[in-house]
Amino acid sequence: MGPKKRGARKRTSEEALGGEKHRDGNEEEAEERGDRRRKNRGNNKYIGAHVGIQGGIWKAVGSCTEMGGSSFALFLGSQRSWKRPALDQTAAAKFREQCSLQEYNPAHILPHGSYLMNCGSPKEDVFEKSQAMLVDELSRCSLLGLNLYNFHPGSSLGSITTEQCVAKIAGAINHAHQQTPAVVTVLENMSGQGSTVGGKFSELKGIIDKVRDQTRVGVCLDTCHAYAAGYDVAAEGGVKAMLDEFDQEVGLHYLKAIHLNDSKGKLGCHLDRHEDIGKGHIGISAFRDIVNEPRLDNIPLILETPGRPGFEYAEQIELLYSLCEKN
Ligand SMILES: [Zn+2]
Ligand SMILES: [Zn+2]
């Protein structure tokens, strides 16, 4: 299941027409969130959310600021089509300008890859299309001034072995690295649903081992996926234990980001069902440990939760920052 798309707040007709700006509750709230974002920089935790790109990719930046986020994720185009129009140069320039105006460091922006891709597919046509899309997405990142790119490794569809699937994924990454400059490909851990690869840290390590330029590969740990795959982050000391295990099996220097999601499913259920923070089987204390974990300083910590009315991203970001002991 994926992050929910979100757009920027609609401007009032007066604002849109350039008329006298009248302040409403929403604006004051947004301003307070902006202040809080500046204040939160002191604790080195960059908490944010997946934001929508409807109406123009640059709008994602303002949406994040409005919800008081310090980091964000976004898609780089439509999730429905393999053939997408090229990224508009003017839109990309506006995006870069907004990031700089609103003081977002590219290190805290983590684009999410298209769900259509399967770089481990045993079907040759799907593999070819996925490989081409990976190149296209990395090129989009470069154009946007971004240097991280997160995607789901892939699936064997049950018709090739995990090792063969791992080799295909690494092959697609090596190919994309050759075609594009500098962007770091960030593998997301999976819930272990069906025949997806990347539920176990050892599988992520297997891919990394086959990547030629290891300065351009990393991992994003999704808390819901980890829990569903059997890593018990909900247990006392569970977050630290998971990071220790990750460090031993993969290496902490590969950890580039965290997806902050509670889980609708139980430990080891292998279901990819995100829940709002503190409302699922993981529970609030694991998230308190995460926002106070020094090993997670200075990397994007990104919500992909349902964000139900009254407990949307802004409220969940506020809650998470309130748990930071350095505040
Ligand atoms: Zn994902
Ligand atoms: Zn995720």
TrEMBL record:
Keywords of the record: DNA damage, DNA repair, Hydrolase, Metal-binding, Zinc
Basic and acidic residues: compositionally biased ranges: 11-25
SMART domains: AP2Ec
Domain Xylose isomerase-like TIM barrel: 65-322
Renumbered residue ranges of the record's region Disordered: 1-43
Keyword Transmembrane attributed: no
GO molecular function: DNA binding; DNA-(apurinic or apyrimidinic site) endonuclease activity; phosphoric diester hydrolase activity; zinc ion binding
Any GO BP annotation: base-excision repair
Record-linked Gene3D superfamilies: Divalent-metal-dependent TIM barrel enzymes
Ranges of Basic residues composition bias in the record: 1-10
Domain of life assignment: Eukaryota
Cofactor(s) the protein needs: Zn(2+)
Gene Ontology CC entries for this record: mitochondrion; nucleus
Family: Belongs to the AP endonuclease 2 family.
Protein name: Xylose isomerase-like TIM barrel domain-containing protein
Organism from which the protein derives: Perca fluviatilis (European perch)
Phylogenetic classification of the source organism: Eukaryota, Metazoa, Chordata, Craniata, Vertebrata
